[in-house]
């Protein structure tokens, strides 16, 4: 005795393929929540990376200024005298102020990076040949 599929009393109904609107809306809501948490953290990470590049450049400028002071008995007024240019990863987010701020007594120099664009919330950075800093070091 063979039974056919049609004669079974508890036959499983076929479900239509795809996602329901509710399922799709739940996924969209979850993605929105994750993005709202992740995006500010990503922006902070980018600002920190840009700040680190600027700090590294300011430190290099001060080191070159110290060497120039030993050789010429004075500080250089600008980057070209030191044979330096602002790297692109710094110049996109900061403007290096020139001429440098030079103090006579005791002899010292201060280099400042002014934040521009998306880096403005992070603030300006400044480094002196005496080791004094301003901004978020």
TrEMBL record:
A GO biological process held by the record: type IV pilus assembly
InterPro entries per record: Bac_GSPG_pilin, N_methyl_site, PilE-like, Pilin-like
One cellular-component annotation, GO: type II protein secretion system complex
Keywords (A to Z) from UniProt: Membrane, Methylation, Transmembrane, Transmembrane helix
Stretch forming the signal peptide: none
Coiled coil (residue ranges): none
The organism of origin for this protein: Azoarcus sp. (strain BH72)
NCBIfam families: IV_pilin_GFxxxE (TIGR02532)
Pfam family name, one: ComP_DUS
Positions of transmembrane segments: 21-39
Superkingdom field: Bacteria
Protein name: Conserved hypothetical prepilin like protein
């Amino acid at each position: 005795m063979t039974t056919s599929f049609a004669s079974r009393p508890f036959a499983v109904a076929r479900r239509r393929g795809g996602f329901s609107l509710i399922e799709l809306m739940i996924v969209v809501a979850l993605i929105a929540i994750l993005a709202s948490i992740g995006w500010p953290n990503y922006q902070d990470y980018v600002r920190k990376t840009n700040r680190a590049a600027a700090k590294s450049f300011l430190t290099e400028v001060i080191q070159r200024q110290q060497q120039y002071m030993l050789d010429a008995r004075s500080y250089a007024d600008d980057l070209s005298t030191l044979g330096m240019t602002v790297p692109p990863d710094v110049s996109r987010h900061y403007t290096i102020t020139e001429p440098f701020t030079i103090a006579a007594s005791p002899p010292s120099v201060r280099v400042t990076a002014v934040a521009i664009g998306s880096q403005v919330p992070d603030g300006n950075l400044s480094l002196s040949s005496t080791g004094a800093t301003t901004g978020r070091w």
